[in-house]
Amino acid sequence: MSRWIDVRKNLRSFRFAVEGIGTLFRFENNAKIHLLAAIAVVIAGIWLRLNRTEWALILTQVGLVLAAEAFNTAIEKLADVVSPERHPQIKAVKDLSAAGVLLVVIIAVIVGILIFGTKLIEMDWMVKNG
């Protein structure tokens, strides 16, 4: 009798995904940099006492950046297997994949400036007007 949901298969897939996360942060320097930035952002969010909506926006941005980095890494590794030697199309693929990460990071920084900047301005105003 077939099951609608194969629990063992799903658990195995989940385990592979967790291994992928471990590999990403163990071996990829850019992922390590993004992870350190994410930790700094979380610490800043705690210090600035972000509200629920602000946390949702910030954590979504963090997740998008980390996911983009994972996709970029996967594409680059696949490209290296497909064409170990230099090839202009593979270079274009890698550049476009890296551009995707950069675009997500730029938007995340803008969201961070909007949220953290507003909080810092409010703190400054409260200090001055007490």
What features would you describe in this structure?
- The chain crosses the membrane at residues 33-50, 96-116.
- A divalent metal cation binds at residues 28, 76.
- The active site is at residue 69.
- The protein is an all-alpha fold and 130 residues long.
- It has a single domain (7-129), classed as Helix Hairpins (Orthogonal Bundle), CATH 1.10.287.
- Helix content is 87%, strand content 0%.
- The chain contains 4 helices and no strands.
- It has helices at 7-27, 29-47, 52-82, 88-129.
- It starts with 6 loop residues before the first helix and ends with a helix.
- The mean pLDDT is 95.
Question: What does the secondary structure layout of this molecule look like, with pairings?
Answer:
Layout: H1 7-27, H2 29-47, H3 52-82, H4 88-129
Helix pairs in contact: 1-2, 2-3, 3-4
Organism: Larkinella terrae
Membrane topology: Multi-pass membrane protein
Subcellular location: Cell membrane
Summarize the structure.
The protein has helices spanning 7-27, 29-47, 52-82, 88-129.
Round the mean pLDDT to the nearest integer and report it: 95
Topology order in helix (H) and strand (E) letters: HHHH
CATH architecture descriptor = Orthogonal Bundle
How many domain units? 1
> Distance N terminus to C terminus?
70 Å
Name the shape in a single word.
extended
Spans where pLDDT lies below 50 across 5 or more residues: none
* Structural class based on helices, strands and sheet pairing: mainly alpha
Beta content: under 5%
The radius of gyration computed from the alpha-carbon positions, rounded to a whole number of angstroms, is 20 Å
What is the number of E strands?
A: 0
Q: The biggest beta sheet, please?
A: none
CATH class: Mainly Alpha
Task: Find the CATH topology.
Answer: Helix Hairpins
